Amino acid sequence: MNTLIAIIGLGVLCLLFEILDFRKAIIPITIIGLLGVLGLTISEYNAPNSYYNNMIVVNKFSVCFSSLFIVLTIFLVALSHNFYENHQSKLSDFIAIKIFLLCGAVAMVSFGNLAMFFLGIEVLSISLYILAASNRMNLKSNEAGMKYFLMGSFASGIILFGICMIYGAMGTFDIAEISEMSQSAELPIWFPIGIVLVTIGMFFKVAAVPFHFWAPDVYEGSPALTTATMSTLAKVVAMATLYKLLSAMNADINYGFQMVIVVISIASMTVGNIMALKQANVKRMLAFSGVSHAGFMLMTLLSITTSAGSLLYYATAYSLAGIAAFSVILYVCKNQNNEDITNFHGLGKTNPLLAAVLTGALLSMAGIPIFAGFFAKLVLFSQTIQAGYLVVVIAAVINSIISVGYYFKLILAMYGKEPNETRTGKPFLIYAVAIVALVLNVIIGLFPSVILDLLA
Amino acid sequence: MNVSLLLILLLVGAIVTYLAGDKLASKVALFFGLASLGCTIVLLNHYNLGENISFITRWITQPNVSFALKADGLSLAMVLLTTALTPIIIFSSFGNEYKNSKAFYALILFMSFAMTGTFLASDGLLYYIFWELALIPIYFIALIWGNGDAEDRKKAVVKFFIYTLAGSLFMLVAFVYLYLKAGSFLIEDLYKLNLSSSEQLWIFLAFFLAYAIKIPLIPFHTWQANVYQKAPTVGTMLLSGIMLKMGLYSVIRWQLPLAPLAAKEYLPVLIGIGIAGVIYGSIVALRQKDLKKLLAYSSLAHVGLISAGTYTLTLDGLRGSVLQMIAHGFVVVGLFFVAEIIFRRYETRTIAEMGGIRAQTPKFTSLFLLLVLASVALPTTFNFVGEFTVLYSLSQINVWFAVLGGTTIILGAYYMLKMFQYTMLGETNKRIFADVTANEGITLVLIVAVLFFFGLYPKPIIDLITPSLEEILTQINRIN
């Protein structure tokens, strides 16, 4: 609760800076503020509590995920410095929107009431729509914003409809009460229908197949930093929320529903990976790779009672690798009008450090050991085998192999081709973010217990 | 003092080499290579005195993973092979110039680190991590410093990477399955499992995929010849000298004891696959025009025989295989080095463009001849000891296996001597062939010396490996 208020305060402060003409300090102060909020959040780890008649419930789950979101936001804000160099006049708007986005994210994992959940998802989505269209002179960015807005509001509508159904069946928005009532033998048919509608809406948000069509276009068209936000923060938020919704409402995860998850999970992995193989644009490629990672994360829903820790681990590993990868992409594709793989040619020669970081990030996403991605997959596989879904694991293994194909395409381009241009300048913040994110990734890869035991 | 020291030494070596800069990198790497060899010998000494040099500590609580390094005779023999070949391989590269050599030598040491870890790990997950880790340096070594057309090289290397990764991921699934049954990844706990024969079959197949690709066995060998040809000679040496042995070692350490029933049931098939590799490799080698490719296929034939030996599940078979692994490691490194020496002077790997070198450099010729003879398992060479033991064990299973496997000696002699004849003998070549340099000479003499020393006196190695092989064999025969 304190987290949420503090974040909103920080967002308002950002807007005030604009009025006070204090732009230069905005990024350092925001980062310091977020670090403070992070400390505040962590201090609530051992003090579960609920506020405003269960509107907001703070527990270990919400604290862990909120901390992850705050860390990701710190990285994204740090990257903004270089990215918005030429848009100084709007800097405070962009930063403030990112902070409000974080607000929505935190609300989405700490809701105790479906009304709060919907508020959170709208705050997050609207911030993202704005960011997607923020490069307003660019046709593609406009298209991305429009597309994302139409698709997203459609999904929100479905979610709202689902919430109404649940309310109709249960007579309450309160998660705890719904959970209690859902254990009774006779449930009105509206309840499962409502759950299915909410789930479909969330599948839109995580871009799982067959609700993924918006992702590649929106990722490609949006400004690169927004793409980074969408593919790391927004994806992880939506996944955590879906997990929380289904586990908190004790939704009857019966055999049929699990089969649907199995199918969607396998389909997301396969379609995402196969489509990614063909992409020449790095942002599109990572969009499809994100679709396949959504498929991996959906596997946690198959053992929903025990897999909170592994979801947190996977989300952390994936998003840290994503941040590291995107900071290199931001560096390479600055002043370019596209993000094609050709831009990366010879990066291993011109800038070995960033090439190594991007290689590490991609290896983590492919699940090669010592990077956190490996343990994320390992824990996921063992949990899913335990739940009795060997088929999904085998599909996941085959998909991991396919994914190596396109991750290595980028690595090959960096090391196997001659450089076609030289880049000057070593933006400190980009280097710092890239290295810190990858180092964190390796650290949690070497000591997975640090994260895994948080939600044990 | 325990084996973790060796791993730390190699890892620190890799980092220091990278930091030492391009000029010093090769020397620093050689220093650390020799230091790790020294460390291995000291450890061997401690081990022979009966001290406990294993190392175990808790790493991750959930899932239950330990950082467990177990040193028994078998793993120490393989570690010795690794740490003895690493300085030789580094030293052999002194005649070449590499761009960005600090990264190059650091990667060699890092790969040596990962392979040593693979041989020592006694926790399934740790073993898997080292196994995968060894793949990354060789990928970059072959990709960045390889030879030939860049596009072809990329294709070959990526194919190799995806192939091996695909195999190992199925092994990972098998490990996860075993973990869920045993509650631990430790090899002792996995050995205690009582798996049904159908479970064992699946486990066996998952492991088989990983190892058959790595070794490689027919029909999973298609990556091999191209990668050997395209990789720089150092990479080829690392691959054929040590990395292949990771697969063979793993068969003995992990696959057979964990799924003995499946191994017994399919014994003839498995030996058949190995022997098919012998015959296929030999015949294809006969037709090769490229020296490195010829050696690659000869390597395929040799590892086919070694794996046939391990799948006999007899003490002789296992012992012969391990001896042959070590012997083959040295001889193949020597032969690839010979190819490199010729390439340094003639800039070609095509056999037809060589010939008539003998008269110009008799010393080099005789060393090369000794290597060729060792490769075809002439008595008094180390390879003879290994190959003979393997063939003997095969004859105990079925005489025809030994007869078919024995073709390796006949065919091997044929293609190796023919190759020798075309490269070295004949009318004196008009192009000048500079005599071997001191560095090259030392490397070759060292390798030949090792091969003949252990050929005449294999007892230390046999004594080292036999107890642990017996232990593994009891494990294999525990259920009958």
From TrEMBL, chain A:
Quaternary structure (record): NDH-1 is composed of 14 different subunits. Subunits NuoA, H, J, K, L, M, N constitute the membrane sector of the complex.
Cellular component aspect of the GO annotation: endomembrane system; plasma membrane
UniProt-recorded Gene Ontology molecular function terms: NADH dehydrogenase (quinone) (non-electrogenic) activity; NADH dehydrogenase (ubiquinone) activity; quinone binding
Membrane topology designation: Multi-pass membrane protein
Positions of transmembrane segments: 26-45, 57-79, 99-132, 148-169, 189-211, 223-243, 255-274, 286-305, 311-332, 353-375, 387-408, 428-451
Name of the protein this chain belongs to: NADH-quinone oxidoreductase subunit N
Subcellular localization(s) per the UniProt record: Cell membrane; Endomembrane system; Membrane
GO biological process: ATP synthesis coupled electron transport
Keywords of the record: Cell membrane, Membrane, NAD, Quinone, Translocase, Transmembrane, Transmembrane helix, Transport
Primary role: NDH-1 shuttles electrons from NADH, via FMN and iron-sulfur (Fe-S) centers, to quinones in the respiratory chain. The immediate electron acceptor for the enzyme in this species is believed to be a menaquinone. Couples the redox reaction to proton translocation (for every two electrons transferred, four hydrogen ions are translocated across the cytoplasmic membrane), and thus conserves the redox energy in a proton gradient.
Enzyme Commission number(s) from the entry: 7.1.1.-
Reaction(s) catalysed by this chain's protein: a quinone + NADH + 5 H(+)(in) = a quinol + NAD(+) + 4 H(+)(out)
Keyword Ribonucleoprotein (UniProt): no
Recorded family membership: Belongs to the complex I subunit 2 family.
Main localisation: membrane
Keyword Membrane attached: yes
UniProtKB/TrEMBL annotation, chain B:
Span of domain NADH:quinone oxidoreductase/Mrp antiporter transmembrane: 122-407
A Gene Ontology term for the protein's cellular component: endomembrane system
Alphabetic keyword roster: Membrane, Transmembrane, Transmembrane helix
The keyword Ion transport appears for this protein: no
Parts of the chain that traverse the membrane: 6-21, 28-47, 67-91, 103-122, 128-148, 160-180, 200-220, 232-254, 266-287, 294-313, 325-343, 364-385, 397-417, 438-457
Keyword Membrane tagged: yes
Topological type in the membrane: Multi-pass membrane protein
MF (Gene Ontology): NADH dehydrogenase (ubiquinone) activity; NADH dehydrogenase activity; ubiquinone binding
Lineage top rank: taxon: Bacteria
GO process annotations (BP): ATP synthesis coupled electron transport; electron transport coupled proton transport
Location relative to the cell: Endomembrane system; Membrane
InterPro entries cross-referenced by the UniProt entry: NADH_Q_OxRdtase_chainM/4 (IPR010227), NADH_UbQ_OxRdtase (IPR003918), ND/Mrp_TM (IPR001750)
Principal subcellular localization: membrane
Family the UniProt entry places it in: Belongs to the complex I subunit 4 family.
Name of the protein this chain belongs to: NADH-quinone oxidoreductase subunit M
Source species of the chain: Flavobacterium restrictum
